[in-house]
């Protein structure tokens, strides 16, 4: 996960926390968090990067709507990141 941007890590966390979210649901969650608009030109290329890295799978709900799920590797990366953070942050 060290080679991901902060935005890509946030995408992973949102996907992990929702049940097969589609792009718009992910976008809305991040807009709430960042308190600003997330443009499609930023969202979808970063989602594609996570798919290419094998951290996320993309499925098709219908002709226009894709959904995203975490792969086992993606979950392992999140778990490892949380363990690493726990060394430094007392939660």
TrEMBL record:
Entry-linked InterPro entries: Tscrpt_reg_PadR_N, WH-like_DNA-bd_sf, WH_DNA-bd_sf
Protein's name in the database: Transcriptional regulator, PadR family
Domain of life of the source: Archaea
Coiled-coil zones: none
Pfam family, one: PadR
Transcription regulator PadR N-terminal domain sequence ranges: 11-79
